[in-house]
Amino acid sequence: MVKPQVCRTPEKRRRHSGSRSLLASAAALKHGLPLVNLVRGDTGARALRQRFPGLPTISTADADWRTQVQDAVGGQGAQVVLDAVGGSLTRDLAALLADGGTLISYGALGSGSTPLESLALIPRGLTVRGVSIGQWLTRTPGERAEDVAFAARLAESAPELFEVAARYDLADFAKAIAHVRRPDKSGTVLLTSPAS
């Protein structure tokens, strides 16, 4: 049996939840992977539940969110936790893992930090991995082509998953970062540069 994965992403308060939640949910459904979504607030949870009614979605604003996650993963812990936010809640997310599980971090928008030694890596045999676009570029051309083809099919079949929140000129990157950190942001913030 495949253990469920837990995906934590920033809350978005408008029609859709975060683009990362939407993409992770769509990919999980496509590949038949069990997934539990975590968002920071009730509004984002409701939006994600509406879009993906077959996937459990839990708000970390709920006092009992940890218990809800444990119930959703069958009380045995998750095999993988995807953390698109980072920050001080990472320790709580690592606690949701089954022994031998993996925490995959690909975001750093959360406040605070989590000391590595607080994650009980050694006694529980946990693995922590970071993922970035730079690492994706080291994959084989065939793997990258497969990923791009999947994204193109997804964009054609569900364009609402690729909602753009705002576009900023590269010179305004600080404004773009501030926009990304807003809890009410919906969609992806794009950096652009003038055509040469």
UniProtKB/TrEMBL annotation:
Alcohol dehydrogenase-like C-terminal domain location: 56-135
Keyword Protein biosynthesis on entry: no
Keyword Oxidoreductase on entry: yes
Annotated region (Disordered), positions in chain: 1-20
InterPro entries assigned: ADH-like_C, NAD(P)-bd_dom_sf
Recorded GO MF terms: NADPH binding; oxidoreductase activity, acting on NAD(P)H
SUPFAM superfamilies: NAD(P)-binding Rossmann-fold domains
Protein name: Alcohol dehydrogenase-like C-terminal domain-containing protein
